Amino acid sequence: MNLINEDFAIWAKGFSGCDGGDIGSPHNKSIWFCGIEYAGEDISDENELRKITFSEKVQIPFEGHTEWNHNLKHRFNWQAMKLLASINGGRVSEYKRFAEINQPFVKGANGYFKANLYPLAFKNTSHQFWKDSFAKATGLNKKQDYLEWIRINRFPIMKTWVENYCPKLIICAGRNYLGDYALAFADDGLAFNSEVIDDRELNWTINKNGSIVVVIPFMINRNGLTKNVSIQKFGDRIRELLASN
């Protein structure tokens, strides 16, 4: 039986793994963008892992980045800017201007919040990056144990975020994780609608509180949502869902 590190448990049940921004409120609803897990460098030292992660205060939402151009430094971020620009009624080609004017996920700016399902950072989602340092720091022997622990202990808390803050839209990247996104953000028992746009699948549902949950293909892998013309169409369709809700 795993003996969970209590510092890890407290940290993982908070807003860990979130870039933050404006989480919104029932009277000032925000758009959330959620990924699978935060991309980061491989950490092999247990003490360093504890120092840079579990020591953070994560019981309130992070206020976001301090610089708007952070959204243009990594491919995943600028792909997100393209989709958000389209949802906002603009063109994908104008994503840099959109990022500068609207400043999603930036401290002091309104309307956008960025999160991740799983709080620890890895180079990618492969289980091979689960080293002894992670097992010792968390008390969980394998990455599969970690994923299951998060599903049971963190996802219900994330669902309370949706209930408390009432986002108007939650964009979830990565269709292979549709079941996880449903557990974290959708009302129990809700079915997802499925549409095909440019040979890519869009899944969506609407919670009782009006929050629209959409699950899109991952935006940086070869078979994902990568073409500008397709991103534009996805954004236009999501804007239609918002207008009709």
Description:
Strands 1-3-2-4-7-6-5 form a 7-stranded mixed sheet, with helices on both faces. The chain is α/β, with parallel strands linked by helices and 245 residues long. The protein contains 9 helices and 7 strands. Strand 5 (193-197) and strand 6 form a beta hairpin. It has helices at residues 6-12, 46-54, 75-87, 95-102, 132-138, 143-153, 155-165, 178-185, 228-244; strands at residues 20-21, 31-39, 112-122, 169-173, 193-197, 200-206, 212-216. It has one domain (6-244): Uracil-DNA Glycosylase, subunit E.
CATH architecture: 3-Layer(aba) Sandwich
Quickly name the level 1 CATH class.
Alpha Beta
Largest sheet data: 7 strands, mixed
What class, by secondary structure content?
A: alpha/beta
CA radius of gyration is 18 Å
Q: How many distinct domains? A: 1
**Number of separate strands:** 7
Helix content: 25-40%
- Neighbour order of strands in the largest sheet: 1-3-2-4-7-6-5
Q: Which residue ranges are poorly predicted, with pLDDT under 50 across at least 5 consecutive positions? A: none
Overall 3D geometry? Answer: globular
Strand content: 15-25%
- Helical segment count: 9
User: What is the CATH fold-level name?
Assistant: Uracil-DNA Glycosylase, subunit E
Mean pLDDT across residues: 92
Order of helices and strands: HEEHHHEHHHEHEEEH
Q: Report, as a whole number of angstroms, the end-to-end distance.
A: 46 Å
